[in-house]
């Protein structure tokens, strides 16, 4: 199956570079490009791609606002935010808005290609430096919101275990080993957890785990 991609960046040379890189892969194809956030939203609505690569700083409508509009449309397009800044103030908000990945533009080509495949498959990806930034943001969160704490209380002990492991960055294979189950069973547990909490992917699960108070930044692993 071919993964269809939209690229949104205000620099034409950057878009061309990404297009050449992705189109060179047999399972990836770029179906459209956009030079600003408004065009990005329109392109996603027009093509309904599997993945949208969106620069966070663009004219007319920035990547954060574009992400919110695309997610609000309720389609299946997964979003990877791209940025030059590894300490961008929008990291946390972009992920809360529904982005499934956040990568730096200077990441190796293989990293970008793998990220597109990962999010198209329904998972999520973060650059290591972005993950550190996210933890810093979590450390500044106020007390858990009541609604999130209530949702947390509805989870079974096994679901709490799974959420805790997902929030700690464990893969399905690692979750399976920790819980002494098969990798298929671990994947099923994660899928059921996301569905029960109405979360898009693992990034959203991580955010939920911290915002609900299940995990506190700097707490024990």
TrEMBL record:
Pfam families, sorted: GerE, Response_reg
GO BP, sorted A to Z: phosphorelay signal transduction system; regulation of DNA-templated transcription
Keywords: DNA-binding, Phosphoprotein, Transcription, Transcription regulation
Coiled coil: none
Keyword presence, Repeat: no
InterPro entries associated with the record: CheY-like_superfamily, NreC/VraR/RcsB-like_REC, Sig_transdc_resp-reg_C-effctor, Sig_transdc_resp-reg_receiver, Tscrpt_reg_LuxR_C, WalR-like
Top-level taxon in the UniProt lineage: Bacteria
GO MF assignments: DNA binding
CDD domains on file: LuxR_C_like, REC_NarL-like
Residue numbers bearing the 4-aspartylphosphate modification: 55
Domain Response regulatory stretches: 4-120
Keyword Repeat: no
Record-annotated HTH luxR-type domain positions: 148-213
Name recorded for this polypeptide: Two component transcriptional regulator, LuxR family
């Amino acid at each position: 199956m071919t993964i269809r991609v939209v690229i949104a960046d205000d620099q034409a040379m950057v878009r061309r570079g990404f297009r050449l890189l992705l189109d060179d892969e047999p399972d990836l194809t770029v179906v459209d490009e956009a030079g600003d956030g408004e065009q990005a939203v329109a392109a996603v609505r027009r093509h309904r791609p599997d993945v949208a690569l969106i620069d966070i700083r663009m004219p007319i409508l920035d990547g954060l606002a574009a992400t919110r509009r695309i997610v609000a449309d309720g389609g299946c397009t997964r979003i990877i935010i791209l940025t030059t800044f590894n300490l961008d103030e929008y990291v946390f908000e972009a992920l809360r808005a529904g982005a499934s990945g956040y990568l730096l533009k200077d990441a190796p080509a293989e990293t970008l290609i793998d990220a597109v495949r990962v999010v198209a498959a329904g998972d999520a990806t973060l650059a290591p430096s972005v993950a550190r930034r996210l933890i810093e943001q979590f450390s500044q969160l106020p007390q858990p919101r009541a609604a999130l704490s209530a949702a947390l209380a509805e989870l079974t002990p096994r679901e709490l275990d799974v959420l805790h492991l997902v929030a700690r960055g464990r893969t399905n294979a690692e979750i399976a080993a920790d819980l002494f189950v098969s990798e298929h069973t671990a994947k099923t547990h994660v899928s059921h957890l996301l569905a029960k909490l109405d979360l898009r992917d693992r990034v959203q699960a991580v955010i939920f785990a911290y915002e609900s108070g299940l995990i506190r930044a700097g707490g024990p692993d």
